[in-house]
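We treat protein structure as text, and this decision shapes the records that our systems exchange. Because each token names a local backbone shape, the row as a whole describes the fold. For reference, a complete record is included directly beneath this paragraph.
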Amino acid sequence: MSHDPDALRELLGADAALCRRALTGEQGVSLPPFTDHHVHLHLIDEHLLAPGGIAGVVDLGGDPVSLARRGDSIPRVAYAGAFLTAVGGYPVGRAWAPPEIAREIGDPSTHPGVPGGAATAVDEQASFGASVIKASLNSTAGPVLDSAALAAIVEVARERGLPVVAHAEGDGMPQLALDAGVDGFAHTPFTGFVGRAFTAHAVKAGQVWISTLAIHGDDAEAAEFARVNLAGFAAAGGRVLYGTDLGNGDQRVGVNPDEAAALDEAGVRGAALIAAMTDPWPLADQPPGVCTFVPGPPPQEPAAVAEWLRDATVVPTEELIHDDR
């Protein structure tokens, strides 16, 4: 199979190709550029991302001023800017969360310029170039946005053409987010089984669920909730995105084989796994001018893909010579 282009594409997706690097002759497989859909750049060394196979990231909680100052580079960065949270809500006061990365909302106003208002917070992130808005609903860690404030965030963001993802943690939080019409979850719901009706609603609404399964390595119950929930969402046709919450705990900067393996265990395997890793959301197009290259022979079966991806790196597209087209 390692030299059968059709079998390779069946396993890894239509854009997988056997290739070699023009400068070194190293053989391997080229794939579309990978994106990690949940990172926190202020907590990691971003210079290690591209050598580790990640060409694009979605920063889901950072200083909007600093993020807006970035130029065009690899990894390409899309971002939410600051967490939008309740007064005193998560992540306010956390050691890893400087004041710049949270905006406390005390007024559900949809009118611009209201101090502490929902529209004011959304407009600030939009003004700094945000491509997505993140709402924090962590009832295990403090106060949360009420339904009026959350609905206002979704309404204003939608008017600005921005999707809203929720960090929904605690009893009832995923349902609160779903009822408000959020566009997705920054983590697969992990504080309980969401059930078939919830999943069907989420799929019909066109939600995206960002995986972040591997962060639950020390919490078997949360890991099982997340795995079962994501498996149901994927099986029902939901749009799954690869994300690691990079910066949360001790994680490898680059492709995380543990996250890929957890996705495989949840039924997102082979070509579906690659699709979750190469989806450009929330942007329309993949990072330009680069591919993700994995050296050596390709895997023989879906179960081997996650570990095989450990050696992925980002290279300029022009450096690769395709051997099967």
Q: What stands out?
A: The chain has a mean pLDDT of 96. The chain has ten helices and 15 strands. Residues 220-235 form the longest helix (16 residues).
